[in-house]
């Protein structure tokens, strides 16, 4: 490492000298060669050392830090709330002693003006400081907010009370308790609001946790002889070769250079069927390598993945301020100015004209004292105490009731928006369908006799026989179709068969074979069973039977086939019908192929011209945006990571509870 550092320093020094030379074509070429040499030297450093620079800040670290900051703010808010209510309780203690006529000397101290003055000062420099400073800063910047009203109300009542306390001959009343209690109630409302917002905010670290933290970096880029070393995924560079073993999550976006496997991409695409990957195929970080070893060339540097792209789309959608929100901010500013003007007008009226119009009102004091009290009252009463306290409380109660009925509602505004929705966009897989392959049909092939017939079963295969044999083979694999066969066999109470030890063999993307009893059973594609002795195929139209088909052959004879599809939810048609009757436009987006999308749409009752297939995550987001440009209030229903950006952008995002965490994180309703 010291030699590499030394060589790098020498190269950098040489380049610095060269850059001072007047340029001609030869010098430019020289600089280019030096730059390439330096890059090569640094790259070599990466390959030769098992310690890559892990100081790079990853997206995961950024989002974890943001979530940490939110939690820290909530803790600070909780501390301020506790102190503020403790001060409020002490303040109330004095009033209670006065009310019940307690004559203890200590109790009278709690009710003294000086004691309440000190409590007010402590409130201003303690729990109320952030709130008041924020309100005044906003006022000086020309964009007053609700905190401005709280600050003005608290400070004005404190100022008038201070004048009354220090100049008693004026005969004014003191009300130091007002800022203490005002700030206590406002902080309670803000704390409740913060809790609601934290619950609603998406913690996207869950999405990033899908990515592995380490990758197996190949040292010499030789799939046959290379050794590998584990490095942090964030340090991977374009051109690195990584090894992905069966069961691993792929650590980076790249291109398969060697190997063959099936990859589960459902967490990214939402589609349940695994995809076969061979040399030249693209793979995405976060997808699961099921049953073969892959050598992958990294095509995007560490930390830059399809997953992080989706994450940035979500962030962009979440931070986009709605027009209604901008209007609310503007109204809040105007409201603050209006209250300030009204307070000033109240002071002017009662200090100049009040004694003439209502002389009885100033019998107990001066006109100035009454004018100050009433102008302060306007400021204090206009403070959003009731709104700030009651609304978050009502929202928390309402969302809790929703949760008991199986609905997670992110806030009261969600229900408000939902009443106005006039367009609903459904994802297909996992939303209108159940989201995983199931066996829908088993078709048996009648044997024609001969060497390979099944004499003990009267030369005829039954559906139960086919499921039993296929399940015996598939019990050795973790392929989604294999799991579907196992579940179907268990549901049909088929005979439990076991493959002979050491006889199981699997080829990713093709099929599996094993010996059960004395018979060789192969399950897979038509090409796979032909390689295992099947000559005649009595099902030339098999591909049209279902979304996916697995052939089952026994000792070179086709026993039958098993059809799979992503089953449609039982209530999908009823839901679409109910929405359509209400005049709501219903659309369907799917990453699946067109034929599969159209089949589902025709069954559930969605118009075919409102179905879009083979869409990418950013295209779903774009479609939602286009509907919104047509002045539609859009709800999006989805369940996968590929739906996350669209769910975040939609006016109301609805995630199916069984979906991937990222979808539920960004949705308004789960």
Main attributes of the structure:
670 residues, Calcium-transporting ATPase, cytoplasmic transduction domain A, 5 domains, six-stranded antiparallel beta sheet, 24 helices, 20 strands, 51% helix, transmembrane
Describe this structure in words.
The protein is of the alpha+beta class. It has five domains: 1-49; 63-203 and 323-392, no CATH class; 212-304, Calcium-transporting ATPase, cytoplasmic transduction domain A, CATH 2.70.150.10; 406-421 and 570-666, HAD superfamily/HAD-like (Rossmann fold, 3-Layer(aba) Sandwich); 435-566, Calcium-transporting ATPase, cytoplasmic domain N (3-Layer(aba) Sandwich), CATH 3.40.1110. 51% of the residues lie in helices and 15% in strands. The chain has a six-stranded antiparallel β-sheet, with no helix packed on it. A hairpin with a 3-residue loop joins strand 12 (505-507) and strand 13 (511-516). Helix 12 packs antiparallel against helix 13 (367-382). The longest helix has 41 residues, at 59-99. It is elongated. 39% of the residues are buried.
């Amino acid at each position: 490492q010291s030699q590499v550092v030394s060589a790098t320093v020498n190269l950098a020094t040489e380049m610095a000298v060269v850059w001072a030379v007047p340029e001609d074509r030869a010098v430019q070429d020289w600089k280019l060669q030096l730059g390439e040499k330096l890059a090569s030297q640094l790259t070599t450093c990466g390959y030769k050392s098992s310690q890559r620079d892990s100081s790079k800040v990853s997206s995961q670290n950024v989002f974890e830090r943001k979530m940490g900051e939110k939690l820290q703010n909530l803790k600070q808010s909780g501390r301020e709330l506790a102190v503020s209510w403790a001060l409020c309780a002490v303040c109330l203690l004095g009033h209670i002693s006065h009310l019940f006529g307690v004559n203890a000397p200590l109790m009278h101290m709690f009710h003294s003006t000086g004691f309440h003055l000190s409590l007010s000062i402590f409130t201003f420099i303690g729990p109320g400081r952030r709130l008041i400073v924020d309100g005044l800063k906003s006022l000086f910047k020309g964009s007053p907010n609700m905190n401005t009203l709280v600050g003005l109300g608290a400070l004005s009542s404190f100022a008038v009370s201070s004048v009354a306390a220090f100049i008693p001959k004026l005969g004014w009343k003191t009300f130091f308790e007002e800022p203490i209690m005002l700030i206590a109630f406002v902080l309670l409302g803000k704390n409740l609001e913060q809790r609601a917002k934290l619950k609603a905010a998406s913690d996207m670290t869950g999405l990033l946790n899908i990515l592995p933290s380490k990758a197996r970096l190949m040292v010499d880029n030789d799939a046959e002889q290379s050794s590998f070393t584990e490095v942090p995924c964030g340090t991977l560079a374009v051109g690195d070769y990584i090894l992905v073993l069966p069961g691993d999550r792929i650590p980076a976006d790249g291109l398969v250079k060697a190997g063959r496997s099936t990859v589960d991409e459902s967490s990214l695409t939402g589609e349940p069927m695994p995809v076969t990957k061979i040399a030249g195929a693209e793979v995405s970080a976060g997808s699961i390598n099921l049953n073969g070893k892959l050598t992958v060339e990294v095509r995007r540097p560490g930390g830059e993945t399809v997953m992080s792209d989706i994450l940035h789309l979500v962030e962009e959608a979440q931070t986009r301020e709605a027009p209604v929100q901008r209007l609310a901010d503007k109204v809040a500013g105007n409201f603050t100015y209006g209250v300030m003007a009204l307070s000033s007008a109240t002071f002017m009226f009662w200090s100049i004209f009040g004694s003439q119009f209502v002389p009885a009102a100033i019998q107990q004091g001066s006109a100035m004292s009454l004018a100050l009290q009433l102008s302060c009252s306007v400021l204090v009463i206009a403070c959003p105490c009731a709104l700030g306290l009651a609304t978050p409380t009502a929202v928390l109660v309402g969302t809790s009731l929703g949760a008991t009925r199986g609905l997670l509602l992110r806030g009261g505004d969600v229900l408000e928006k939902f009443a106005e929705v006039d367009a609903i966009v459904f994802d297909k897989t996992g939303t209108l369908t159940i989201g995983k392959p199931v066996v829908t049909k088993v078709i048996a092939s009648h044997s024609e006799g001969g060497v390979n017939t099944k004499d003990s079963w009267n030369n005829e295969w039954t559906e139960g026989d086919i499921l039993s044999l296929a399940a015996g083979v598939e019990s050795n694999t973790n392929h989604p179709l294999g799991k579907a066969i196992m579940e179907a066999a268990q549901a049909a109470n088929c005979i439990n068969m076991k493959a002979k030890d050491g006889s199981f063999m699997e080829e990713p993307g093709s099929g599996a074979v094993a010996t059960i009893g004395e018979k060789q059973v192969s399950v897979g594609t038509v090409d796979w069973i032909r390689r295992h002795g099947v000559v005649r195929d009595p099902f030339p139209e098999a591909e049209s039977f279902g979304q996916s088909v697995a052939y089952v052959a026994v000792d070179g004879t086709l026993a039958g086939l098993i059809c799979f599809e992503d089953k449609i939810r039982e209530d999908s048609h009823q839901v679409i019908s109910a929405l359509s009757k209400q005049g709501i436009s219903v659309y369907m987006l799917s990453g699946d192929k067109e034929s599969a999308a159209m089949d589902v749409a025709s069954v559930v009752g969605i118009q075919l011209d409102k179905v879009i297939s083979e869409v990418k995550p950013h295209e779903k987001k774009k479609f939602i945006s286009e509907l919104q440009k047509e002045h539609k209030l859009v709800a999006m229903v989805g369940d996968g990571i590929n739906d996350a950006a669209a769910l975040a952008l939609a006016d109301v995002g609805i995630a199916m509870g069984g979906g991937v965490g990222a979808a539920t994180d960004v949705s308004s309703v789960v």
